[in-house]
Design goal:
Length: about 450
């Protein structure tokens, strides 16, 4: 158990370090290339290969991890990320769209190799039935939630480094730090974590478990719903329309993702009930209920952005009638930009909380629905769908923002969540493991 805990902490620390660089490079690319004059759709296209190769990597990565070990696939991912960061340090004339897309392809491969390895390792280190399904839910929620919190920190790090030491200086710093982490984790981790005794066949990558397939389809639309407005549309809107600086945009998105990560890590406690105390985790019903709640939020934000400025004086008058002793003149005098900022900030807080719970439930269910012999391949298949959703969301984020604005992106987001809800209708419950007999001490 001591060795397993050490390996879990080592994998988690490596995943954290990688995640900071992943968030930082995304913010660097969005802000720097927007500054160079790229349109929102062109910025979105820079991430096309990042997501395409993420899909391929998740399809192949689970099979590869089962053959060579999850620790080795994790370190290959780190090395590729160092290479991707280094590629972008060339002079500006070399940074053509195709060249940057190639660098982002390496980064996409790196990220999904690293993520698949870390998530699958949790299942192998907790052991079958160790502490019940609620313990597995707790482990994966902490790993995923902390990762997302640090990805938010990466957004801030990327934006701050861009403003302080420039694009290339930021890339050199990130590549150097990740290289050091790669060396340390390679020395600490044993070989063969998650490696199957029998050679895995590539055909086993495609899941024949209906629950895994339905969950993967729901995951596609869940993450498409986030990225269709969060990846390109939101930061460009904050910078261009609301006039925020790079650091302000990066800090705000960082705080949002950090808070989202904390909620995700706390999801087992937030969802604690009778089933969880009995040793069972959440099931398909939990996924459906939270998807329904989530679908209402982007629709509400879109309505607020469209009609908020016109309704603010009426709202101020109504509040004054209800509470005549309070002054709501500031609300009546608010500018459209101030109303939009308030709607976005409030809506993003709600969206982040509910999306985090949805994501935590999904991340647990993929492990709960997987048997030990196919866990890395099922996780890879599931994150292939996840990457596909991000790809669709990323491309649509630039395209829809350019043609329909941020409100258009939000309506698409609501539609994607509704699709995730439909696919969640077939998700089964997760049974609690049988009780383990305790030895009687005389």
């Amino acid at each position: 158990m001591r060795a397993a805990t050490r390996n879990y902490l080592t994998v988690t620390a490596g995943y954290w370090a990688f995640t900071i660089t992943d968030g930082a490079i995304r913010m660097l690319v969005v802000l720097y290339f927007h500054q160079l004059g790229y349109s929102p759709f062109e910025v979105a296209m820079l991430f096309l290969f990042y997501e395409v190769f993420g899909i391929i990597t998740n399809l192949v990565g689970g099979w590869l991890g089962a053959r060579i070990g999850l620790n080795l696939t994790m370190h290959i991912g780190m090395a590729l990320q160092v290479a991707a960061l280094s590629m972008l340090t060339v002079p500006d004339p070399w940074l053509s769209v195709v060249y940057v897309m190639a660098a982002q392809a390496l980064s996409g491969i790196a990220k999904d190799l690293n993520k698949m390895s870390a998530k699958a390792t949790v299942k192998t280190l907790t052991g079958e039935g160790a502490g019940g399904e609620s313990t597995l839910f707790k482990y994966v929620a902490v790993l995923t939630g902390s990762k997302n919190a640090l990805k938010g920190a990466g957004f801030f790090v990327g934006a701050a480094l861009l403003q302080w030491i420039g694009f290339r200086g930021a890339l050199f710093v990130l590549a150097g730090v990740l290289l050091v982490v790669l060396i340390i984790t390679a020395l600490l981790l044993p070989a063969g974590v998650g490696k199957l005794k029998e050679k895995a066949k590539f055909t086993q990558v495609f899941s024949n478990t209906p629950a895994v397939n339905w969950l993967s389809a729901a995951r596609f639309f869940l993450f498409g719903a986030r990225d269709v407005w969060f990846v390109v549309a939101l930061p460009v809107f904050l910078y261009d329309v609301l006039g925020w600086s790079y650091t302000e945009v990066g800090a705000f998105l960082a705080l949002w993702v950090i808070g989202y990560g904390f909620v995700q890590a706390a999801a087992p406690g937030l969802l604690r009930g009778g089933r969880h105390r009995a040793g069972a985790g959440p099931g398909g019903g939990t996924a459906r209920a939270w998807a329904l709640v989530l679908a209402l939020i982007p629709a509400g934000i879109a309505l607020g952005l469209t009609h908020g400025a016109a309704l603010a004086p009426r709202l101020a008058g109504g509040l004054t009638t209800l509470a005549p002793g309070l002054d709501f003149g500031w609300l009546a005098a608010a500018t459209p930009a101030q109303v939009q900022a308030a709607v976005l900030i409030g809506g993003l807080v709600l969206f982040g909380v509910v999306f985090a719970i949805n994501s935590a439930v999904h991340s647990y269910l993929i492990l709960a629905y997987s048997d030990f012999q196919k866990v890395s391949m099922n996780v890879g298949f599931y994150y292939m769908a996840n990457a596909g959703g991000r790809l669709a969301g990323t491309v649509l984020s630039g395209l829809i923002y350019q043609t329909q604005g941020l409100t258009g992106c939000l309506w698409w987001s609501a539609g994607f969540v509704a699709a995730a809800l439909v696919f969640s209708l077939r998700l089964p419950a997760v049974s609690a493991p049988p009780p383990v007999a305790r030895p009687v001490v005389p």
